[in-house]
Amino acid sequence: xxxFAITSQLLETVLREMEKxxxxxxxxxxxxxxxxxxxEPRQIRENYRLLTRDTKLANSRxxxxxxxxxxxxxxxxxxxxxxxxxxxxxxxxxxxxxxxxCGFFAKIVRGRECLVKRIRMVV
Amino acid sequence: MTQYLSSVIKAGKNESYDVELAEDLLKAxxxxxxxxxxxxxxxxxxVIEVIGSVGTGKTSLIENLVKRLRNRFKILAxxxxxxxxxxSSLIARQGVEVMQINTGRECHLDANLVSKAYAKIEQVxxxxxxxxxxGNLICPSEFPLGAGKRVVVLSLTEGQYxxxxxxxxxxxxxxxxxxxxxxxxxxxVNPEALVRxxxxxxxxxxxxxxxxxxxxxxxxxxxxxxxxx
Lengths: 123, 229
What we know:
The complex is a heterodimer.
Chain A: H1 3-20, E1 25-34, H2 41-52, E2 61-67, E3 70-73, E4 79-81, E5 83-87, E6 92-96, E7 106-110, E8 114-122
Parallel strand pairs in A: 1-2
Antiparallel strand pairs in A: 1-8, 3-4, 3-7, 5-6
Chain B: H1 2-6, E1 16-24, H2 27-42, E2 46-52, H3 58-69, E3 75-81, H4 86-92, E4 97-102, H5 111-115, H6 118-124, E5 128-132, E6 149-155, H7 162-165, H8 167-171, E7 175-179, H9 191-201, E8 206-209, H10 218-224
Helix pairs in contact in B: 3-4
């Protein structure tokens, strides 16, 4: 839902880096989107297309990779994928902060980010 | 230093090269939220953020809390809305200071908008601030504001499966209030099952079954928010 705001911010970052590196154009932008965010890659891509139209970023490609949710448990020391529960009756698949190993609370350490990883620039 | 620089290989004309970054687009807001949190702490102000769908009872909840706490705290209620002052006017009836933040078309408040309330908070010398987010159970959870506690309000009229449908929001909550318990008898919804789902998604979340209409559960909620006497 807030992909427009995030994509606008992405454009600001790319344009700032372009200027910093005296690039004439941008070939690729690599974005990492955490699976524990409400950000939908398809919508980010569509917003990117609309926002870059008729700009110097018009021909750049936006590549999005999703990152997995990782949790850490301070009780048993578990660090790894977040536990996912399923309920076949409603086709439900939902993450939980219950530690997959000991059943106590596990904190999210990855999966809530939206990282600009790499910008391929043309000088 | 110059020696190092001279050994950098640079791309020639029309050649491409990669610039490696690790810039988190959600981080800017988180940093602003941390600054808000520090500011509130330095000024001894408790801040409670209220998140929930449209019509779940966020404003009614703040009205209830304000009614019981206004004698002990100097309260400011900040209401976030797209374009009206309806919510802040409703809360103002309780005789506390209010402030409206209109987001225009934005679906959530952000930490920067909240920082614009510093002057008002200082002016009214508030020591307890409620921030009612825009009616939306999704986007606000991704934009922390710097509050000490986050309350997510669900209600029975939204059905039994709200926690499972919005696990990421439930994960971001300190307290989840299940509102409209006065309708439990007429609705085909099992409140205990809803509470079970909340805890299943976030074992650390405290829950309170409340009714803003009858006042049921509000005292418990005040305790969970650590605002009791």
